[in-house]
Amino acid sequence: MxxxxxxxxxxxxxxxxxxxxxxxxxxxxxxxxxxxAIGVNFVDCCHRSGLYPLPxxxxxLGSEGVGRVEAVGEGVHGVAIGGRVAYAGGVPPGSYAAAxxxxxxxxxxxxxxVDDVALAASLLKGLTAEFLVRRVFKVxxxxxxxxxxxxxxxGGLLCQWLRHVGATVVGVVSTAAKADGxxxxxxxxxxxxxxxxxxxxxARFTQGRGVDVCYDSVGKDTLRESLRxxxxxxxxxxxxxxxxxxxxxxxxxxxxxxxxxTRPTLHDYTSTxxxxxxxxxxxxxxxxxGVLRPRVHAVLPLAEAATAHHLLESxxxxxxxxxxx
Length: 325
Description:
The protein is α/β, with parallel strands linked by helices.
């Protein structure tokens, strides 16, 4: 028996319930992880609302956790009872729980010197930043980059990583209160949406050249604005739905600047064990070395998962949210 947050129907944060559920022994290839910290991500809200439908109801939420190995199923090698491990993505939602069974191949070693809350606040976001900065578009010195939601959980780490590799970073935030957080995360220029036009501001900051790549996690409200910020043959990376699912884009729209558009997912960039371990190793070294500094907005008890979702959807957070069992 374990405690878990589950949804019995789709809807707002009020549908989240704290249930006692039976937890069977780990199946072959699985490991039971007793959580010490659980990451909260916007994709969890998309599952809860029904935007990303779950296969059955009731169902758990959450795809990121840190903890200790409590039990090991048959056929699992290289994972020891008591070992400190973490996972992010690639598993069915269900990390909002005191413990759960996880496929062993999705686990990564927790980096030494990084506490559990910091790791839960940053692993999924950091793995996302890794493939965005290093593989979707290999950012380097001299590149001009635009990041929406630059004061958020993913945005903050993304800006820090971009600054580290030598890019010029333009961050967009919703209010002036978040501007300092974006600058602290490495933004050379910050656009406050409530005070300035994003397209005009980007043109000023880039002397009319536009950005080489734009990372847009906001979605519906910003996609076409993002296209207009690109240089000729620039790339728009749309990877989130904070304002809703983006509207369809006609191919002819991209002709205005010979633009490229992609919609990548973490799953497709960590689909093999070797890809996952390498990405986690690269991220872990930057995290342990202090290059990446996750901002934690709040740590809440598991029973207050609904509060975490309210905070996230209201865009009132400046950093990550973490639950503890």
